[in-house]
Amino acid sequence: MHADAALTLPAKGADQNPLNIPDWLLLPEPRSFRPKRRYRTVWISDVHLGTRGSKAEELVAFLRSIEPQTLYLVGDIIDGWSLRKAWYWPDTHNEVVRRILKMAHRGTKVIFVIGNHDEVLRDYAGFTLGGVRLALEAEHETADGRRLLVTHGDSFDGVVLYARWLAFLGDRAYAFLLRANYAVNAVRKRLNLPYWSLSAYMKSRVKNAVQFVSNFENALIHEASTRGFDGIVSGHIHCAEIRQVGDITYYNDGDWVESCTALAEDVSGTISILNWNMGAPAETQAEAQAECEA
Questions:
Q1: How far apart are CA 192 and CA 173, in angstroms?
Q2: Is residue 135 one of the residues assigned to a domain?
Q3: CB atoms within 10 A of CB 234
Q4: Against a cut of 0.90, is the pTM above it?
């Protein structure tokens, strides 16, 4: 098929597709033996498309399994830092973008809260592209009436704000750990052992990293309290968690390079951690938080 043929519907009539909508947006969903799980809201972040560490295939499977009314992309969906150094964009990364656009086309409200790795999009905050609204931060009201601030979280990271060179250095070290993580788990798979995150283990064992996570969380909790919110949702530190501090609830949706986690709100307003666990849904908050607290 010619490359252009996949972009528009066959022209059977002048008025059939006046907006030249890509035909893949209109294709019916594949049949599944398992019905989609319906949520009021889902939050995902730190997908890092454009890197070899991105679990794009797992994310596509997760997105196909859910039907949220609202989907928040809480930053670092695309890794512009990595793409500037070397281009890496396999078709599975295209599939993530297509899936999100298809969800937006079919009625899901999609809000992209821009992070530091996709900061090139910040100049377009306030615009809507393909049904996806770009924003620097967002406010979400839960079904039970609580107001949550939604932010990627990099603006509360002193390393990113004041020592950008150190952030880039840390990013390279993290990329090395992810490559090592891939090799370790290739061996574990041959031995029929479950997935294990080397990078998450190293972070949990480094005292400074543990202190950084604690300081980061406390800074966000303070921000939510100061601005009169009931809670705050973020990403950035790749550590899924739900924590109550006084009247403020801190939520972090984790990432899709290590833990494959998301946050989901049900129709009553209850928010929980979803742990896709490398393709197998396991809706247990304890498993997701174990990597942060080990």
A1: 28
A2: yes
A3: 30
A4: no
